[in-house]
Design brief:
With about 280 residues, the protein is mostly helical. The protein has 13 helices and two strands; from the N terminus they run ααααββααααααααα. The chain has a two-stranded antiparallel ribbon with strand order 1-2. A hairpin with a 2-residue loop joins strand 1 and strand 2. It is globular and about 60 Å long.
């Protein structure tokens, strides 16, 4: 929010403690949720099935007994260095490189830094691009990238076309209750599955409606709503990773394992963020 005079550290001063509180609340709930596996009848039934038991415990993978090459460690150090460079540039905007007399935007800086480091890994760490692109992680990630990019593009087109109608529909309620914009952010996030897309689509609209900037900053955690419908790659992957069968999507789709922890985390984070932003700014 450079036009408001806000820096990234000031934004993080609100969002980091707020989100940590939300994560802690969700973790506290999850630690008390359900039965221990030795008392869980569904898990015990799966354990009694020889085929399912073989599926759960038949194969294991670990790196504890493997010696990683020096090039692998160097690639990790390069990645961490790239993260450090990005954090420093975001924290101190005066250090940002300039093009045509203007500082580059952070999204471009992140791309430049990461692509440069990826190139260095290939040149100096003996990374093999063919093996990278043939791996399951890469393939799943690229499917997610294409899907999210398409959804974000579609949503941006939609919101740009109907900006006037949406402003009219939201004007009365957000003027009376500015914090209600959090429900809009959450609902849009559920639909388009991207936090960045929600910010780009809704935040300018909300600011044009006259919602104070500190309110928008405070409710920023509410942009995380794509756990609501369990169709995101990370949700599906988590279900597949849990061979015990206790992480499930559920018969009625919305009664999945991520629903209650997700709602607790977002609700607590948004409330704490809203209170902190109002108190500090």
């Amino acid at each position: 929010m450079p036009e408001l005079g806000l820096t990234i550290p000031q934004v993080l001063m609100i969002t980091i403690p707020a989100c940590l509180c939300g994560i802690f609340a969700a973790a506290l709930f999850s630690s008390k949720r359900g039965l221990d596996l030795d008392k869980d009848p569904k898990y015990q039934a799966r354990l009694a099935d020889p085929e399912l038991k073989e599926y759960m415990f038949g194969s294991t993978a670990t790196t504890l007994d493997k010696k990683l090459p020096a090039t692998a460690k160097a690639s990790v150090l390069l990645f961490l260095t790239a993260l450090a460079v990005i954090v420093i540039l975001a924290t101190f905007p005066a250090l940002l490189p300039h093009y045509d007399g203007k500082p580059l935007k952070m999204n471009l800086v992140i791309q430049i830094v990461m692509l440069t480091v990826a190139g260095l890994m290939i040149l100096t760490c003996k990374a093999e691009p063919k093996k990278v692109v043939s791996g399951s992680v890469w393939q799943a990630g690229m499917v997610a990238v294409v899907a999210i990019y398409g959804i974000a593009w579609l949503s941006d087109t939609y919101f740009a076309a109907y900006k006037g109608e949406m402003m009219t529909a939201m004007k009365d309620i957000v003027n009376a209750y500015p914090w209600a914009i959090a429900f809009v952010l959450f609902a849009v996030s559920v639909l388009i599955n991207t936090q960045g897309g929600v910010v780009l689509a809704i935040m300018p609209l909300a600011y044009d409606l006259g919602i104070p900037w500190y309110v928008l900053l405070g409710v920023l955690p509410s942009v995380y709503g794509y756990f609501f419908i369990p169709n995101y790659p990370s949700d599906i992957a988590t279900v597949n990773f849990d061979r015990s069968g206790t992480t499930v999507i559920g018969k009625y789709l919305l009664n999945h394992s991520f629903m209650i922890p997700g709602l607790i985390s977002v609700t607590v984070s948004t409330i704490i963020g809203y209170l902190l932003a109002n108190f500090i700014y």
